[in-house]
Amino acid sequence: MYHYNDFDKAFLAERNTQFRAQVERRVAGNLTEDEFKPLRLMNGLYLQLHAYMLRVAIPYGTLSSAQMDTLALLADKWDKGYGHFTTRQNIQYNWPKLTDVPDMLDALGEVGMHAIQTSGNTIRNVTADHFAGAAADEIEDPRPLAELIRQWSTDHPEFQFMGRKFKIAVSGAAADRAVLKAHDLAVRIVKNDAGVVGYQVLVGGGLGRTPMIGKVLHDFLPREDLLPFIEATVSVWNQIGRRDNKYKARIKITVHEHGLEDIRARVDERFAQIKPTFSGVDQALFEDIKAHFAAPAFRNAPTVDYDTAYDANPTFRSWADTNLAAHRVDGYAVVTVSLKKHGDTPGDATSAQMRALAQIARDFGHDELRISHEQNVILPHVHKSDLPVVYAALRDVDLHTANIGLISDIIACPGMDYCALATARSIPVAQKIAERFDELKLEHDIGHLQVKISGCINACGHHHVGHIGILGLDRAGVENYQITLGGDATWDAAIGERAGPGFAYDEIVPAIERLVNGYLELRDSPAETFLAAYRRLGLAPFKAYLYPEAQDAKVRANAA
Amino acid sequence: MPRAFTPKVVTANALIEGDVIYLTADNGWTRDLPLAELLTDEAHAQLRLLEAEQQVGEIVGAYLADAVASDNGPEPTHFREDFRRTGPSNYFHGKQAVGQ
After folding, report:
1. pTM to 2 decimals?
2. Shortest CB distance from A47 goes to which of B18, B79, B83?
3. What is the CATH number of domain A411-559?
4. A263-292 residues touching B, CB cutoff 8 A
5. Fewer CB atoms < 10 Å away: N or C end of chain A?
6. Backbone φ, ψ for residue A525 (5° rounding)
């Protein structure tokens, strides 16, 4: 894990002091809201429907137990005892008072955390594969690179007032768990035929009202070229990106309008200009950062306790089958802790749950925790012999739900229950779908199925890349939900196809149930996932289940 | 033809707490929609909004929201305003929890 040095600490302390003074001036009436708003947004403070919201960055999703304890402290002391983990590996507090926020930021600063650049037209929190440093399929841990990008982008003078926000993701594994192709820019660590590690750079992906799949801008960059190449790319977009229309300001539109070849030529030209100004400091810094991410001292021990529990305890076995992933070290497992208990709010954790997770990480997890963009918590390094104890500890705080990758493991944005931009609610739809399929006891039979729900077209809930995507809209003053099918958030990324007319709030859960029942009838074997069946069959047969009335009408018309 | 004016209330968020507030007839702010001033005349509504916006030390983001008269005072006409006067649906937090 990266630990702040004296420079980092001094920078953050000064920034927090500045914000404290800005809040005081706003309250005293010396700043108008128009003057204050950009200042609070730069520090992650939004105003939502019912209250302020503080969005705290969790860089590349990595947390220590001390940091998780502090997140719990904030929830108890200045909020309502819980926090909401987001699809960008951040945490949001929904109820802070304006005058408490400087104290919250100071408390975060104590453990090397902040809310800088979690809003505004800047380079946002860098996200990464949540299995980084642990996954069996990894070429290299992407976090040192993510940290280098974080340090470079934080308060970067050229990139504080861009046309729009800019999101970067990094991954170093064969499988893409970071939705690389839905980012403004993504870095994928690759190895060439000669066995040399380098970087593939993608550009122009994004969801929102104009969803686009990222394209390869550079196939293989050597290490020393990466940071100047990223800077060149952001710089090109910052100059030619559109500022006349905020909906056309993201780099995906710039790439679309200019074409990839034109952007590549501009980036190459800019790169040639700025590369000589990178004196090698970034490479020295990178080596220093890398040392912070040295692998923990893994132990070599028998796994007999795990095997015994697996054979003897069916609930443990079900959890292990669903929530564990392969670790790169023999005898270890990657544990995904579900924040999707049926009927609960996706991504929410109480302060007691956060403290329990911190304690488990201290006792059994080499002091490491991760937050996934899928709104779950990961214990990346747990020895298998400790899993029965870890499971029992999770069970004590109701964090033992065995549903990772299943239909109830739903991504949902806060929607109109909190968000000022939302056009409909997301959370209750997620709650009801999860509860319904739990009642039906079907989800393990259904298998891998990702449902992703957004409460507006901005797509924080990633609905475009859900196997089943749900988009909540306001249709003539009533909540209405559009379904998209066949989206994919992996390296085979695909934007889902709109199924047809939307459904009213009380019709959406029955519609999803019909759709999933249809899939169970249509699949050629239990091994064929929803997405595979959709790819084989296309939209039409699924549509028949979603819109039975239309189907009946067609039959009647044919009979007449 | 321009659309007929529909009744409104002036609403905003409180500067410190950030919660939902409504302008009252005596130029104060209330957290209860039924106590808000219902504005039935368009020119008067615009004037009241201007007056509200001047109270920069107390409020953020004033705007006119549609409402209708009822026996209990103004009621929202759109679900967004209904959520704003109630609180979120996943927890018993916000206005719905006040006074419980």
Report:
1. 0.96
2. B18
3. 3.30.413.10
4. none
5. C
6. -165, 165
